[in-house]
Amino acid sequence: MDAIRASRHPVALVLHLGFKSASLLAYLLGLLFTTNFILVFVVVVLLLALDFWTVKNVSGRLLVRMRWYNATDPDGRLVWIFESAESLQSSTDSRIFWLTLYATPGLWLGLALVAVVKFELLWLTLVLAGCVLSGINAVAYAQCDRTARSPGISLLSRLAVWRLLF
């Protein structure tokens, strides 16, 4: 609760934590208490999609001032674009963002190993969806962070990105 009070963007922080927790909790409770795989699959995939979208489009921008997207260049190739603004984020927001961003794919990977050991191939498909969706955000934001820390980014380009983001 103190972390939420210390946050500069408490709603974004709650959404960031909420969708990650809800998807993992829905999977675990569905695994333990129901045999209706389709219901659990639909609920978990919807929560994973909401988490992916929220991290990519809301919490990344507000909590750590970064964003990523992909576009098609004139040659038709897919290009990933990583942007960051001057660091004005709260240390609480940043710490929670990075911790949960990297921990979530690890948790899904651990659940994938359990599914493999138990030979639950149907459940493995769902867990792999969690690995992929949370992993893409983790990799993209890690690249955003690397790009932001590189000395080649000028102040002028950061200001231009700042105007685009906010």
Task: Name the structural class.
Answer: mainly alpha
Give the H and E element order.
HHHEEHHH
Shape: globular
The biggest sheet, with number of strands, parallel, antiparallel or mixed sense and barrel status, is: 2 strands, antiparallel
Strand content: 5-15%
Instruction: State the strand order across the main sheet.
Output: 1-2
Give the averaged pLDDT, no decimals.
Answer: 86
How many distinct helices?
6
Radius of gyration: 18 Å
Task: Give a concise summary.
By secondary structure, the protein is mainly alpha-helical.
Labels describing this entry:
single chain; two-stranded antiparallel ribbon; 166 residues
Question: Can you describe this structure?
Answer:
This protein is mainly alpha-helical and 166 residues long. The chain is 74% helix and 8% strand. It is built from six helices and two strands; from the N terminus they run H-H-H-E-E-H-H-H. The chain has helices at residues 2-6, 10-33, 37-63, 91-117, 121-149, 155-165, and strands at 66-72, 78-84. It has a two-stranded antiparallel ribbon. Helix 2 packs parallel to helix 4 (91-117).
